[in-house]
Amino acid sequence: MEIGLYVAVASLEASKVFYSQLFEKAPYIETASFVGYEITGGRFGLFLESAYAVPVQRGNSTVANTKVANIEAEFARVKALKPQKMQADIITVGPTRLFMFADPDDNVIEFFSVGE
Fold first, then answer.
1. What does the alpha-carbon distance between residue 85 and residue 108 come to, in Å, rounded to a whole number?
2. Which of helix, strand or coil describes residue 76?
3. Per-residue model confidence as pLDDT tens digits over 15-43
4. Strand pairing of 42-48 and 85-86?
5. Which conformational region is residue 67 in: left (phi greater than 0), alpha (psi within -120 to 50 degrees), or beta?
6. Are the C-beta atoms of 82 and 102 separated by less than 8 Å?
7. For residues 48 and 61, what is the distance between their CA atoms, to the nearest angstrom?
8. At residue 74, does pLDDT exceed 70?
9. DSSP state string for 18-61
10. Edge-first strand listing for the sheet containing 29-30
11. How far apart are CA 36 and CA 38, in angstroms?
12. Is-contact 34 80, C-beta < 8 A?
């Protein structure tokens, strides 16, 4: 079984640039209304909000979280991408260290590590 997550975006091109830099890879599929990335254990997709059959709301409707090996390195790398919104620091919750940031459509993303 694999899991996938799709987020609504206003501009596929702008979001593709952001996520290609974030994931450090090109999409595996691109159509007029969808861009998909293969991520370890699943898929992450961007769908054009205006092409979806059911009304959806962009931004802050879900939190995509990704486990990373080195939270400090990822924090520095994501900060260099200059997302519009980003936590000022890495926070610790029990054995988990994490930070959140937003894509160009205000969709929230969390990177975390455990027991690092």
1. 9
2. helix
3. 999 999 999 999 999 999 899 999 887 89
4. unpaired
5. beta
6. no
7. 15
8. yes
9. HHHHHHTS--SEE-SSEEEEEETTEEEEEEEGGG-SS----SSS
10. 3-9, 42-48, 34-39, 29-30
11. 7
12. no
Burial class of residue 87 (count of CB atoms within 10 Å of its CB; 0-12, 13-18, 19+): middle
Amino acid sitting at position 39:
I
Q: What is the rounded distance in angstroms from the CA atom of residue 67 to the CA atom of residue 3?
A: 14
Amino acid 2: pLDDT: 67
* pLDDT exceeds cutoff 70 at 91: yes
Tokens of 104: 């160009």
Can you say whether residue 18 is alpha, beta or left, with left for phi > 0 and alpha for psi between -120 and 50 degrees? alpha
d(CA 107, CA 63): 7
Burial (Cβ within 10 Å: 0-12, 13-18, ≥19) of residue 20: middle
110 or 116, higher pLDDT: 110
Judge whether residue 51 has pLDDT over 90: no
